[in-house]
Amino acid sequence: METIEQRLKSKNIRITAMRLLVYKFLANKKVAVTLSDLENTFDKVDRTTLYRTIKTFEKKDIVHQIDDGTGITKYALCEQGCTCAMESDLHLHFHCDHCHETVCLTDYKIPEIKVPIGFVSKNANVVVKGICDICNGS
């Protein structure tokens, strides 16, 4: 299994203590997180450093951004080998109306979406809303 350091190096990301901490934090989360979640976890760290770390991870396909309709951008780690390509890597997200958590449903891929001639699609985001398995008692 690839280590965090190996994954970052394979994406040409310089390894820093903060990048390792943020990656480990995201890897231990089962739900998508906000920039505020990161700030609250690393309260002694400059907000700009966290923002730059997330943006670097996003640019290098380490994390993806999720718009779950709440008006607050959330982030989650990409799967190994993800390039955030429309054809192969897009998946469903689920937002729980009860606990307000958003989770990636990576096993549920978004089928290819065709757009009219002349249109160029760059991203797609499908969010299913309802009650998660935990809140539902399953």
TrEMBL record:
Cofactor remark: Binds 1 zinc ion per subunit.
Which Gene Ontology terms describe the biological processes this protein takes part in? negative regulation of DNA-templated transcription; regulation of secondary metabolite biosynthetic process
- Pfam families assigned to the protein according to its UniProt record, in alphabetical order: FUR
Please list the residues that bind Zn(2+): C96, C99, C132, C135
User: What keywords would UniProt list here?
Assistant: Metal-binding, Zinc
Keyword Cytoplasm included in the entry's annotation: no
Keyword Phosphoprotein found: no
**What cofactors does this protein use?**
Zn(2+)
Q: What's a Gene Ontology MF term here? A: transcription cis-regulatory region binding
The protein depicted here goes by the name: Transcriptional repressor
